Amino acid sequence: MCLAIPAQVKELDEKMMMGTVDILGVTREVALDLVPKVKAGDYVLVHAGYGIEIVDEQFANETLEIIRQFPELIDEDHPGMGVGAQ
Question: Measured between alpha carbons, how far is 8 from 5 in angstroms, rounded to an integer?
């Protein structure tokens, strides 16, 4: 099963179209070529290392809350992504 997860863009390198995102307390570098209008602070859906769509904060938070309810979807090697993590 493939899943795109909402992440907040914390830093943006517009020249390289790369960004640092926060996904449930874990930071990752992702490619942002598919969302050229993204800005720092925006939320994007991340799939396979790419930001694929800009989403609003409410949608992102609602989706993250659903993900937290299914600990089997969360990588155990990333404790910040566990149930109840903020």
Answer: 10
